[in-house]
Specification:
This protein is about 30% helix and about 25% strand. The chain has about 425 residues and is of the alpha/beta class. The protein contains twelve helices and 22 strands. It has helices at about 20-25, 40-50, 75-95, 110-115, 120-130, 145-155, 185-195, 215-230, 250-260, 290-295, 315-325, 330-335; strands at about 5-10, 25-30, 55-60, 100-105, 135-140, 155-160, 205-210, 230-235, 240-245, 265-270, 270-275, 305-310, 340-345, 350-355, 370-375, 375-380, 385, 390-395, 395-405, 410, 415, 420-425.
C-alpha cells in the first residue's frame, strides 16, 4: 500500500490539545464559518509549523450555531463566494505565518451535500481554486461529485475515509445522533483504521478533533498508519523483513515480534526486523505489533552494564595505529575509553555489534577476510567493535583479545542483548 495520511479536524475548540497536531499529518483548520477565528487560525498555523503538520483549509456552511453539521439550502453561486472567502482568510494568515496551505477539505454537512450534488461540488471547487489556486489537493470521498469536480478542474485529490465513524453495510456513514455513528473505543478505531487503510483505495484517514478521547484515538490511528507504512518484503516463504525507524527501541521490538503467534524467531538489526515463521501458518500483519512502539512514549529501559577485560595484542593493532596517525597505546586507550551499546546481535551466535567507535580509530573492513579468526578476538570495522564468540572467518581488523568471556550459552542464548552497555577494561 502507499502511505496513508492521518488528517484531523482542528482549530475548532478553545481547549484543543497540542498533541493532536503532533499526531496529525494534515490539520484541517476551521476557517471561521462553523468554528474558529483569526486567533484560532493563527494558533493552528503556528502549531503546524512547530510539528511539521501540513495545513488544510476546512471551509463549511456558514452555520456556527449548528457547527456546520446541518444541511442548508445555499445557491451554488453564493456557496462559491462563501468558500472562496473562508479559504482566502486562512490563506492570508498562512502567508503571515509562512505556512503553505496545501490541502482543502469541506466540513460536515457541506462535505456530504457537495458530494451528492454536482452543482454544489463545482461551485465549491471553483471557490477553492479562486482562493487557493489550482495546485491545492482536495480531500474528498473516493467516489461522488466532489471527486468528479476535482478531476474536471484538474485538481489533485486525496480519497478519504473516517477512522472514528461507524458505517452502514453499504459503506455510508451512520448519521450522527444514531447508535454507532461515532467510535470512541480505541480498539475499535484501530481495527477500523486497519480495515480502511488496507483496502487499497484510501489516501487519508480522518479523526475528528471533537470526538471524545481524540488524543488517544489519534495516537492509535497514527501509530497504525506508521506501522503499515514500514517497507516490507518477503524472504522466501517463511520470513518477512521490514525497515525499522530509529525511534523504535530495538529490544522491545524483538520481544514484541517474538511473542506473535506463529513466529519461530525474530531478528532485529540496526535497520531492519526479520520474523521467521512456519509457511503454513504465517502471522497476521507483524508490523502492527510495533504500532504501540512508534508514537507512544516509553519509560527509559534499564540495561545491563557488562565489563569485558581485554588485552590489546591483536595482529592488526599496529596497522590501525599507523592509519590513524596514532601510537598503539593511543588506539588502546581510545578503544577502552568509551561505553558502547549493543546495536544488534548476529553473524555468529552471541556476536554483538557494539557502537559507536571513536571516529579517530574507525577503519574499513579488511579487503580480504581472514579464513580463521580466533575465538574471543576483539575487532573493529567501520564505527563498530565486537568480540568474536567462536573461531570463524572474519573481515574485521583485530586489535585485542577478550579474557574469560563466554558470549553464547546453548541453553540461555547470547549473553549480550540489544541495548546492553559494554565497557572494555584494559589488562596486561
Amino acid at each position: 500500500m502507499t502511505e496513508c495520511l492521518l488528517n484531523i479536524d482542528l482549530g475548532e475548540l478553545p481547549d484543543e490539545d497540542e498533541r493532536l497536531y503532533a499526531f496529525a499529518q494534515v490539520a484541517n483548520i476551521a476557517c471561521g464559518a462553523h468554528a474558529g477565528d483569526d486567533a484560532s487560525m493563527r494558533r493552528a498555523l503556528e502549531l503546524c509549523a512547530r510539528h511539521g503538520t501540513r495545513a488544510c483549509a476546512h471551509p463549511s456552511y456558514e452555520d456556527r450555531e449548528g457547527f456546520g453539521r446541518r444541511a442548508l439550502d445555499v445557491a451554488p453561486d453564493l456557496l462559491r463566494g462563501q468558500v472562496a472567502s473562508q479559504c482566502a482568510r486562512l490563506a492570508r494568515l498562512a502567508r503571515e505565518q509562512r505556512v503553505p496551505v496545501v490541502f482543502v477539505k469541506p466540513h460536515g454537512a457541506l462535505y456530504h451535500a457537495a458530494n451528492a450534488s454536482p452543482a454544489l461540488a463545482r461551485a465549491l471547487v471553483a471557490g477553492v481554486v479562486e482562493a487557493l489556486g489550482s495546485g491545492i489537493t482536495l480531500i474528498a470521498p473516493p467516489t461522488g461529485a466532489l471527486r468528479d469536480a476535482a478531476i474536471d478542474a484538474g485538481l489533485p485529490h486525496a480519497r478519504e475515509a473516517f477512522a472514528d465513524r461507524g458505517t452502514r453495510s453499504d459503506g455510508s456513514l451512520i448519521p450522527r445522533g444514531q447508535p454507532g455513528a461515532v467510535l470512541t473505543d480505541a480498539a475499535r478505531v484501530r481495527e477500523n483504521a486497519v480495515r480502511l487503510a488496507t483496502q487499497g483505495d484510501i489516501d487519508t484517514l480522518c479523526v475528528h478533533g471533537d470526538t471524545p478521547g481524540a488524543v488517544e484515538l489519534a495516537r492509535e490511528v497514527r501509530s497504525t498508519l506508521d506501522a503499515l507504512a514500514l517497507p516490507i518484503q518477503a524472504l522466501g516463504d517463511g520470513a518477512l523483513r521490514f525497515s525499522l525507524p530509529d525511534t523504535v527501541e530495538r529490544r522491545a521490538a524483538r520481544e514484541v515480534l517474538k511473542a506473535l503467534p506463529g513466529v519461530v524467531d525474530a531478528v532485529v538489526t540496526e535497520q531492519h526486523a526479520c520474523v521467521y515463521f512456519d509457511p503454513s501458518a504465517p502471522p497476521e500483519e507483524p508490523r502492527l505489533a510495533l504500532a504501540r512502539l512508534l508514537n507512544a512514549p516509553m519509560a527509559p529501559a534499564v540495561r545491563t552494564l557488562v565489563t569485558l577485560r581485554i588485552r590489546y595484542d591483536g595482529p592488526d593493532l599496529e596497522k590501525v595505529a599507523a592509519r590513524a596517525g596514532l601510537s598503539v597505546d593511543d588506539v588502546a586507550q581510545l578503544h577502552a575509553a568509551r561505553e558502547y551499546t549493543v546495536r544488534c546481535v548476529g553473524f555468529l551466535p552471541g556476536f554483538a555489534y557494539l557502537g559507536e567507535l571513536d571516529p579517530r580509530i574507525v577503519v574499513p573492513r579488511l579487503p580480504t577476510p581472514r579464513m580463521r579468526v580466533p575465538a574471543l578476538a576483539v575487532g573493529i570495522a567501520g564505527a563498530r567493535t565486537g568480540v568474536y564468540p567462536f573461531a570463524s572467518p572474519g573481515g574485521w581488523s583485530l586489535i585485542g583479545t577478550a579474557m574469560d568471556f563466554t558470549a553464547f550459552h546453548p541453553d540461555r542464548g547470547a549473553v549480550l542483548q540489544l541495548g546492553d552497555r559494554v565497557r572494555f577494561e584494559r589488562v596486561g
